[in-house]
Amino acid sequence: MAGKNHGYCIIKGRVENLAEIQEMIDSGRKGDIIRTMMHKYGLKPIDAYMFAELVFEKGIPANYDAILEQRDFEVSQRKSCLVHCPRCGSINVEEMVYAPLPYIRREYWYCNRCHYEFDK
Fold first, then answer.
1. I want to staple 43 with a disulfide (CB 3.0 to 4.6 A). Which of 47, 67, 94, 97 is the partner?
2. For 21-37, how does the pLDDT look when each residue is reduced to its tens digit (9 = 90+)?
3. What's the CA angle centered on 63, arms 60 and 68, to 5 degrees?
């Protein structure tokens, strides 16, 4: 629905008229969009930057909150697939191999945070 909502967009639970943003898009002022989204609409810098990238590619979205929710969901899904330490929960782990002899081999994970070793 981007670009087809006449400049209205849901941001932080409110319907906002982004006519001024459309003017910035038309004149190619990406930096001004980022600053406006941060200062006037209270977006975090990364979210304001993502908004600016999105509007230049697809136009003003009808619901930016939904786009941020989808992004956060996808990030959490990726993080949940990462190996994490069963003791402290850290994802700062690395795969280790202990092979003192050719016929002795142990593969395990090592937590760089709490120094716990755990099996794969």
1. 47
2. 999 999 999 999 999 99
3. 100
Backbone angles phi, psi at 24, to 5 degrees: -65, -35
Give the per-residue SS3 of 27-79. Answer: CCCHHHHHHHHHHCCCCCHHHHHHHHHHHHHHCCCCEHHHHHHHHHHHHHHHH
Which pTM value belongs to this model?
0.63
Structure tokens at 42: 């209270």
With residue 11 as reference, give the H or E element that holds it.
strand 8-11
In eight-state DSSP terms, residue 92 is -
Tokens of 105: 């081999």
Closest CA to 15 of 48, 53, 61, 59: 61
Are 47 and 37 spatial neighbours (Cβ–Cβ below 8 Å)? yes
Quick check: helix, strand or coil at residue 94?
strand
Contacting residues for 64 by C-beta, under 8 A, at least 6 apart = 9, 10, 11, 51
In the chain, what are the domain boundaries?
8-80, 82-120
